[in-house]
Every structure is written in C-alpha cells, then in structure tokens.
Amino acid sequence: MTAMMNQLVAGRYRLEHPLGRGGMATVWRARDEVLGRAVAVKLMAEGALHDASAVERFRHEANTVAGLGHANIVTVFDAGVDGHLPFLVMELIEGADLGSLIARGRLRVEYAVTVADQVCGALETAHRAGVVHRDLKPANLLMSPDGTVKVVDFGIARTAATARAGLTAVATVVGTSAYIAPEQATGAPVDARADLYALGCILHEMLTREPPFTGEDPMAVLYQHLHQPPRPLRGIRPDVPADLEQLVLDLLAKDPSDRPADAGAVRERLAGAGSSPALTTLPMPAAPEAGAHGIRPEAVGRRGRATARPDRRNRRRLVLLGAAVFAAAAITGYLVNSSGSPDANQVADPAPSASAPTSSAPATAAPSQTASSPSTTATATQHQGTVADVQRVVTTEQLSGVLARDAAQDLHNRLKEIAKQRAKGRTNDADHKIEDLRGRLNSLQRTGKLTAAGATRITAALDALD
User: Fold this and answer.
1) Whole-structure pTM value
2) What CATH code would you report for 2-91?
C-alpha cells in the first residue's frame, strides 16, 4: 500500500494517501496534475484481477455513473487501465458518509427528510435511465460540507435491459442484508422499487439509529425482510409525523406493488411530511474520529437475536446465497474528514424521547458484558459459533428449496439444544444429540423433505463440529 504512495496513474493522477480499502479495490486521494485539482482514484486490487466478474463490475461502474449526470450522483472524470490495473477517477467528496453521522446519534426529522429528498433526486435520474442501484445504504451516501448528498458505488447496479436479457451467467443475491429488498434477497428480478425499499430502511435508520431489521447474522436479517413487518416508527420515536411513518411503512412493503410507484412519488410525499428546509441550511458535521477518513465498516446487526421465522406460504427460492455477498466489505466511500464544521447537534437529535431507548448501539457496538465467567463465555462463543455455521447451511438449504420449512425448523431447534449442551460443557450429551440429528437427516431424505445433495452439505457442516 505505502509503496504506491506518490505513484503517477495514467500519467496525470498523483496518489497521495489511501482513503479506504476493500477486497476488490482501494480508493486514494490523488492530485490531478493536469488540471491541478484533488480527485479520488479507485484502483482495482491486484488480487481481484483474476476474477472476471469483479473486473466487469469495475468497468460497469465507470460506464454506468458516467452516463448519469446529476448533482446528487458522484461525478466520474476518467477511467481506464494503467499498466494492468483498471482505475476510475471521481470527484473527491470532502465530508462524511451518512453512516458516520448516524453513528453519532439519530437525526432530526427535518434533516432526515431533506437527505431522503436528495437521494430521491438521484434515484429519479438513475431510474429514468433504466439503472437500479441495488446497494443503497448509509455508507454509500456521502455528505458534502455544503449539504449536498452524493450517491456512490454503482458497482452492482444493473440496467433494466441487462436484467431482461439475463446477462449474468448465474443468478446471485447481491446487496447488503440490512437494506436488501425481499425480492432481491430471493434472487427474483428487481426493478426501481428495490431501491425504494432500501431508502425506507435508510429513513428508518436515520430516525431511530437502527435499520428496521437487525440480527446476529445476515440470514437472520433476511428472514425478517421476507416475513416480519417493521415496527412503526412512532412506537420508537413519537415525534415522527404520522405521514412520514406511513411513508416508511409503504416503502418497506414486502410486495413491490404495494410500494410507492417511483422516486418522484416518494418526493411528493416527503414534501408533505413536515418541515423540510433546504439542505444547505443544515451543514454537515465533521466526520467522527473512529474509522479511517469517515469510512465505517458495514454492520449487519447491532443488537438482539432475530426471532422471525418464515411462514409456510412463501415458496420463493433464494439462489446461490454466497457468504461473500454479506461478509466482503466493498469500498463504498470516496471522502476525507473535513474540519471546522458545525457541531453534530445541528443535524442529530440531542436526546432520545421518553419512550425511546435511552441508549442506542453505535454502528459497531461492543459485545455486551455478562456475569458469565471468562472461561464459560469463551467456550460458549466458540461452540455456538460452530453450531451457527451449521444453522446457516440449514437456512440456505431451506431458502433454496431443497429442505422443507417445517423440517428446517426442527433442525434449528435441535441445533439450539446442541449449542446449549456444549455451552454447559456437556459434550457427551451434545454428541448424542448430534448423532440423533444425523439420523434425522436420513429420515428427512426418506420422506422427501430433504434432497440428498442438501443432506450432504448439512452433514459436512456437522462434521466440523466433531
């Protein structure tokens, strides 16, 4: 990384220092020596060059954003290949991402409304061009000091034509689980309404400091997106106007046809959702100290265990749910900390309401402390983590249609018992239950509730427990 500092890219962009790094690319602050201005240069990682799909996404992002001219969409200045490394040159946003602001406290209602309004402006332009972002989240919304919101990271965006033509060789689930629309989570075709669902999640988080659904792992969050209704905002924060609460509920409708028709319709409803002064009257605060240059790691869930279970009526399939979809951290911001900005209280709600929780977990909350002894806690964490791996496999098999839902629930219950026995140090009892579970897998195959391939994958995960 340091070896690249001061390197000249494409004969004109002098790399100064990295702003953020992900598995596929690194974003640098750079100096355009031809025009004499600061820019952000996104360089593809050496290790990603062998991944043809990653290279295509990188190229696709450049082409997509270059065709979208809007004040609320980051501007692409240049793109190409330097030596063997693809690069993308964009405007440098001197500010923080929305996630960094939310980490400091929930936002004032009027501020959240104006942010959402600007995002809708960007979405109107993108959707009009047939582009669906598919990964809207707070980390992909950069906040300029002058109050302008910039939507970034169109790396997994798709055009309507591409979606219809089925140009992706294998259907995959893409997006961040805390903001993913139900139809997107199941691998079904998506349109602009998937972005509106994500906007509903973002609005909920701006107003409450948490997205509508949280859990300890991405699969738990997916369950809730698919089957659990969101909690009404006014039950968490009574000062939210009733019409704004209803808008968020409509945006979070499970069925896309029940959501607002388009971003323009959302803007109209935002205009009537209480005070919404021009955003330039609400300058951005300085980015929080934690995290490199205001880029925060993505957090799937912040507190509590997911309890939602899928109902038996929904038979939609989840196709190829790769762990990398949710675990890999992508570069989502091209920004630097600004100095001399007003205090965060200009945009953040200074104190929770009487009925709201007295404290909210930050974006990356520390583990809660319990009365358990260190040795007991460590043992439980280790074993439950392994059992959780098996549970994730069971969930994936269920959502991919090879495991009946009632059978999946039975397996989850058995796995919970195994985790409890191991946490208590009763390894013999846990081993007996594991053997019982293996027998149950054979029984499910005989009754047609589990395919042989699914049984093989679950058994392989069970073997890891031994």
Assistant:
1) 0.62
2) 3.30.200.20
Q: What is the dihedral of CA 418, 420, 425, 428, to 10 degrees?
A: -30
Question: Would you call 135 a catalytic residue per the annotation?
Answer: yes
Of 32, 97, 117, 135, the catalytic one is 135
- Do domains 2-91 and 94-346 share one topology? The answer is no
Cα–Cα dist 252/417, whole Å: 34
Instruction: Kindly report, residue by residue over 386-399, the tens digit of the pLDDT.
Output: 787 788 788 677 75
CATH of domain 94-346: 1.10.510.10
pLDDT in tens, 100-158: 999 999 999 999 999 999 999 999 999 999 999 999 999 999 998 888 999 998 866 66
Q: 203: left (phi > 0), else alpha (psi -120 to 50), else beta?
A: alpha
Buried b (16+ CB within 10 A) or exposed e, 312-342: eeeeeebeebeeebbeeebbbbbbbbbeebe
Domain segments of the chain as ranges: 2-91, 94-346, 374-463
- Give the pLDDT band (50/70/90) at residue 15: very high
